Amino acid sequence: MNINHETPAALEAILFACGGPVPFERLCDILGVNAEGLREAAAILKNKYSDDKENGIQLITVENAYQLCTKAYVAEYVKKALELRKAPPLSKASLEVLAIIAYNQPVTRSFIEMVRGVDSASIVASLVDKGLVAERGTLDAPGRPILFGTTDTFLRCFGLESIDDLPKTELQMTGEQVSLDLASAETEKEQNNE
């Protein structure tokens, strides 16, 4: 079904009332439109919010979902209104752990610690508290270690629509690659000792 004159307004009202991301499929069901109709309604809203001088909100896409959020230039006013204190920036260590999780998710804390070479329990806990990382189940291995992955909050904070939008990097590794690198480092060390 195509959209009618109420569809963009209804989409706006739903996203406003929900506060968080609402999946595309759910919006199509609620609005009684197909994917093309939803995209058309979303385009109308994006156009409506395009002028920074008249609008302080924007329509964003997060993991196959739409969400209304404030624009960066009015964020300080919103923070004051909600009496939120300014969150301190993430430390280098936190960004490092976040990158390891984002590029290799889902990962265990022991994997993170193997890559970093230091205990990372408090940093992982801090990232979970901030809502940037969440538990994603357990690994089917002795001790059933917890798996961690990034959240929608992570995507919003870094301006990404999905995890696929992360910049390509050579930091991406698997457990096998790390153990191969460790094995080659041991071989190199043995050769240097000879």
* Main β sheet profile: 3 strands, antiparallel
Structural domains: how many: 2
Series of H and E elements: HEHHEEHHEHHEEHH
Low-pLDDT ranges: 171-194
The number of helical elements comes to 9
Task: Specify the CATH homologous superfamily of the largest domain.
Answer: Winged helix-like DNA-binding domain superfamily/Winged helix DNA-binding domain
Number of strands: 6
Structural class: alpha+beta
Mean pLDDT: 83
Estimated radius of gyration: 22 Å
- Lateral arrangement of strands in the main beta sheet: 1-3-2
Instruction: Please state roughly what percent of the residues sit in beta strands, choosing from under 5%, 5-15%, 15-25%, 25-35%, 35-45% or over 45%.
Output: 5-15%
Distance between the termini: 75 Å
Overall, the morphology is globular
Helical percent range? 40-55%
CATH classification, class level of the largest domain: Mainly Alpha
The second-level CATH architecture of the largest domain is Orthogonal Bundle
CATH fold topology of the largest domain: Arc Repressor Mutant, subunit A
